[in-house]
Amino acid sequence: MGLELYLDLLSQPCRAVYIFAKKNGIPFELRTVELLKGQHVSKGFLPANSPQKVPVLKDGDFVLHQSVAILIYLSCKYQTADHWYPPDLQARARVHEYLGWHADFIRGTFGVCLWTKVLAPLIGVQVPEEKVKRNRAAVDRALQLLEDQFLGDKAFLTSQRVTLADLMALEELMQVVALGQDVFESRPRLAAWRGRVEAVLGADLCQETHSPILNILEQVANKQLPPPPPEAHQSMLLRISRIP
Amino acid sequence: MGLELYLDLLSASCRAVYIFARKNSIPFDFQFVDLLKGYHHSKEYSEINPLKKLPSLKDGKFILSESVAVLLYLCRKYSAPSYWYPPDLHTRALVDEFMAWQHTAIQLPMSKILWIKLLIPMITGEEVPAEKTEEVLAEVQENLKLFEERFLQDRMFITGDNISLADLVALVEMMQPIGGNHNVFQASSKLAQWRMRVELSIGPSLFWEAHNRLVKLGEWDCSTLDPLVKERIVDLLRKFK
After folding, report:
1. What is the rounded average pLDDT for all residues in chain A?
2. Major location, coarse class (chain A) (predicted)?
């Protein structure tokens, strides 16, 4: 069995991994794990002894978690073009610098909207308005820092070429956009950056990768989303309680 | 001007960088940026790092923040022994996985314990509600269990027979609650044994020197606390309620 990637395209880090693998022609079996159906907590969907998270990579007997680790692994093993994970000492340091900041200020924060607008309501939970407001403020602050401290006048977040950092950032921003918050309309520099990243990736690949999340609110409106199974409730409630 | 490291050893991320640089005899100027006095918000430090975070590295004109980035930079630039960041694809990937996971799974909850057990009561005079405390402690327990199952398993260190950047980062972060007299290593003899091995590998003298400020935190006179920092702590308490 070759490379397997366990993904749900509703998840930001899964999309980053998917888009990177596809763009670089890396052959893999897609193992879809539907988070909405609670498949990540059910037996038989993820490799044995895995934490109940996606994405997961399985390469023969080797299992790997965490999208950043997966992206680095793929870039090394499949010897993707240098610009994705630059070999130069300082250029590579900049990618890690962004990813470190991203882990604290983007990850988690940008995912809250899916919970407040889709997942919590699906199990009959309302996230308090105070928390929703606090999250929006955190998103706005992070976007300002992203624009001022990382992008600046450059073409991409860490240099003049696109890197893994841009993929991770793009997918988090797309999550917020898909859930109805304007990110790009009021921020022309970020909009231009997004255009450049998508130009590198190609419109078809972006469309394919982004359409599930971009359709989510419509599915909610049309009541097309089945409620998650009871066994998923506990982990969902825990996640909801951790929204600051 | 040679390599400068901007640090306050109260921060686990700073301790990881300090210990690594010292252990590998990397020459540097220690630039103390006092978190308790709010110096990370000073105009001078903003010129080094506009994000106002520690640690930062300044190597000639090159300025770098984020401890994982700084550790990898130092490791490579100063040709540290390969066991710190093993070249084997799978072994390296495990270190990368830990470094990605630790931000929210280890660093954040360990830091919360210090806030809950010491800093919030000390500075605001109020205790964090018991329910919230229990939640954070439960989360820490769960994640330490995952740490043992996924990263330690039956090995001496995370990558096998030698210490790596992952062990260093893991340990300094797990030490953070000690500042509030809370010892997370008591719960598991496996974890306690690993802790001892990492300390011995670093060298107890260097290890405890790096943790001195943290260990003495309970003695600190918090009336000297910068008002801006106090405001942010009061704000933090609100989030715990």
Report:
1. 95
2. cytoplasm
